[in-house]
Please model this.
Amino acid sequence: MATQHSRSAARLMMAPAVVLLLGWMLVPLSMTLWFSFRKFLPLRGGDQGFVGFDNYVRFISSSSFWPAVQTTLVIVLGVLIITIVFGVLLAMLLDQPIWGQGIVRILIIAPFFVMPTVSALVWKNIFMDPVNGLLAHLWRAFGADPVVWLTDVPVYSIVMILSWQWLPFATLILLTAIQSLDGEQLEASEMDGAGFLSRFIYIILPHLSRAITIVILIQTIFLLSIFAEIFVTTGGAFGTRTLTYLIFQRVLESQNVGLGSAGGVYAIILANIVAIFLMRIVGKNLDA
Amino acid sequence: MARAVTKQRKTLNTLVAWAVGLLIFFPILWTILTSFKTEAQAINDPPLFLFFDWTLENYGVVQERSDYMRFLWNSIILAGGSTLLGILVAVPAAWSMAFVPSKRTKDILLWMLSTKMLPAVGVLYPIYLLFIELGLLDSRVGLTIVLMLINLPIIVWMLYTYFREIPGEILEAARMDGASLREEILYVLTPMAIPGIASTILLNFILAWNEAFWTLNLTAAKAAPLTAFIASYSSPEGLFYAKLSAASTMAIAPILILGWFSQKQLVRGLTFGAVK
Model:
């Protein structure tokens, strides 16, 4: 159906989006690459020339690197496990016939629309404050000593805040997937005497596997680069410095651009490893 | 897959679902309630749930002290401007990829998606530097462009998945009847594409409104939107729970309402059409 004329028109219509994204990708990326090979301290002597792979070696061998990797892993894995386990359970619950389903759905989805700085600050102060926080009141009501959340268990507190934000997303996607499950298949298995557990393991879970994979990949990409939640709760203190936050501190706080750029290149490589898997799945879907 | 279940089962499901739903929603509800308390009532032990002296005082104080309206206006301009700009660029691109696909269409789409995966922090300094050089730091223009660029892949993808659902036969019929390319776009495609475009606008407005990396790092006073306004409450003085709650409620209320309309689009937009 495509004539030569419409082909060239199509190319023209695509051009602005392609050019903009190409510029957005190539210009900053090549600058980051360039800086990563130079000693560049804007406030202390400026650009002091080419240093080879020095920044890459120093970024990895600095004492804050491995703790940051560990924090990043704990946060990403923790949030993934919580949101997917509870997401599957919630999706199955919401798939059942219930009264007021629409309203319950709205209640569950709401946290996703709360801006990150609001959710981080509200949790930090109104809920997790060790003196006046609601959780402290609750602990005292049961005669327990309130937990000093963001100092004593800072990483887990951040995992909790992030899980609250991302559970709606996982639930919504898994619910959409579960609703496309063939009801007759379930009924048939029920008639054949399959219990709830075997129905869950052999029918529901395999059906959800693709949606779960997508949730894992997309959340990983977003979770690897969380920023505001750490910025306003601990500012990277108490061992909550993630890789993203470490790079931010190197670049903007200590103004060591060369070192931070080398870190940025690592972050880009890491994100691309995850992205390749996501793109495979999405790409397959395009052919269908 | 709604199936017939007994009434008892439905009642039980309903109770559990409502309990879980209210538990998840509770932090938001509590924030809204606290915004109507006095500072002393906000930290009362035991906590006051509904029976306190409702007051609107905090809202007035927040506006007076920090000029909330200015931040709100910035949020609207940034989110609205970046979304509309993005739509202007993305509609032609998505249209051509959906209706005049070539061998490279799939590669281009996947490449666009890959730009979304670029971690922001990896290009923080270059953007920061470019903004200083171009005089864009703390300007609405600069931030609007950045927000447009980070959401452009999602906008193109969403529009593409919507446009692909428009049957090609309709276009062929229009062409046979002698419609020109312009007429085809204006009178045949546009009416059918409007629901998809509206959903795309909605979701991207929300994403831009809540964006909190670039808005925190590239603004100071002039162009700061609500994300940055709220962040300024992270080092407060004295009692401030009720005021923080009022400020938070004002920052999230518009988007909560919009968000409830966009549940379905959320899935499509954020999974790049992989789950519908």
Notes: Chain A has two domains: 35-64+241-288, 70-238. Residues 37 and 52 of chain A are 5 Å apart (CA to CA). Chain A has a mean pLDDT of 85.
